[in-house]
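Let's inspect a concrete specimen:
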Amino acid sequence: MLALIKGRPMLQHVLDAAEAAELDPVVVVLGADSGLIERTLVWRSETRFVNPDPDRGLSSSLAIGLTALGGQERVLVLLGDQPFVSAQKLSLIASTPRDPEHPIVVPRYADGKPGNPVLIEREALVLAARLEGDRGMSQLFSAEPDLIRYVDVPGTNPDVDTLADLAAI
């Protein structure tokens, strides 16, 4: 999260895009390096939580964030390791009209592959909160394909999961 990209920490890029897209509220779930991350980034009105057991995987952080967001009609799930997500992409995904029959909105980028961030509407929030392990939302995609709809988003949105990914960008 603190790897420098264009002079700023990776997570800062994501927070800045959320701010520019006027997402509100913004909940951030931090892991093992939470103290260092909190001291390093520029924070605005984001609400921060620490995952007490990040070894349980991405889904444990997702559950904490979804619980914190309780009564929201829609939740846009951003990943901190996607520094090239833009306010324009976030706004495009977030502005997708509601559809209770297909309450999971997945962006499909220029390469045709589905990706993140994912928009979850009220009808699917309970399903998302029940996920386990480190696969995140992809579990839900395979378990509930009839609930998904896609929105085409220009460009790409690469994850930076490894040092090789960081070198590639």
The helical segments are 10-20, 34-40, 58-68, 87-94, 122-129, 138-143, 163-168. The two ends are 15 Å apart (CA to CA). Residues 10-20 form the longest helix (11 residues).
